[in-house]
Design a protein that fits this description.
This protein has two helices and 16 strands. By secondary structure, the protein is mainly β. The chain is elongated and about 75 Å long.
Length: about 250
């Protein structure tokens, strides 16, 4: 038994002796926006050997969302590097002894489950051939939408609903946490934001949500009857094709 353990240990040492440390930078970049970094909690990255499913490296992207002028306002020529040493990323360090086909899986943003996107790509890693700089950039489409009012499963008396209607309020940001506002860099004038409302499982009304202040979208829903209601808030930018959705349920009672 001891000999078997010793042989396995020696075999492991021999294998590792031929393995070469290889670095791979992975970044998550929001569609039509910047990199996913610490300000929104980062993205979770898994580098996996496609042959046997072994996880070679795993961790979160950390750092800033990047240089706004460079990423969003400047024309990009071939080989233009969009990141710098402060830009969010995850540096995977793997030991491989032969070219290895890997899958890079990204879950982003890691702390916003209602808006999470699971994106992936595949590449070959070659021993000792580091992939740095911008590295592998995985695009994360969508918007982070949080419905603030009404609250999930909130019970609201019918006589407490104002004559102006029930306030629907949502907070919406880009997937990197970048702000949305009228005439801003991420311009809400280019976005369609609506609340699709169901009552007792049937289509009820649609309400357009306006953007009175940064990241905040509001509208009023006229309600005259008690029932079980569901609100689906969506954001759509026809210029970029970017979309996002959030749903809640609440109750209007007599």
């Amino acid at each position: 038994m001891k000999k078997s353990i010793l042989l396995l240990a020696l075999l492991s040492i021999c294998i590792n002796a031929f393995a070469t440390e290889t670095k791979l930078m992975v970044r998550a970049k929001a569609k039509d926006a910047k990199f996913v970094g610490g300000s929104i909690g980062g993205a979770h990255v898994i580098v996996r050997n496609t042959l046997n499913g072994q996880i070679l490296a795993e961790g979160e992207t950390t750092g800033s969302t990047g240089n706004t002028d460079l990423i969003m306002r400047s024309p990009h020529e071939r080989y233009t590097q969009l990141s710098d040493e402060k830009t969010a990323g995850f540096l995977a360090i793997v030991d491989i002894d032969e070219p290895t086909f890997v899958q890079i899986e990204v879950v982003s943003p890691i702390n916003k489950k209602n808006a999470q996107i699971h994106a992936s790509t595949q590449i070959w890693l070659i021993p000792g051939k580091d992939i740095l700089g911008d590295g592998v950039v995985v695009e994360i489409p969508g918007f982070v939408i949080d419905i603030l009012k009404p609250n999930t499963h909130q019970y609201i008396p019918l006589d407490a609903v104002p004559d102006s209607g029930l306030l629907i309020e949502a907070n919406i940001v880009m997937m990197c946490g970048c702000p949305i506002q009228k005439d801003g860099l991420w311009d809400s004038n280019l976005m369609e934001v609506k609340a699709m409302v169901k009552k007792d499982g049937e289509a009820f009304k649609e309400v357009t949500l306006n953007n009175p202040e940064q990241n905040t979208f509001k509208g009023n829903l006229e309600i005259e009857e008690a029932g079980y209601y569901q609100i689906t808030v969506y954001a759509f930018n026809s210029k970029t094709g970017n979309t996002g959705v959030e749903k809640i349920n609440y109750v209007i009672r007599e």
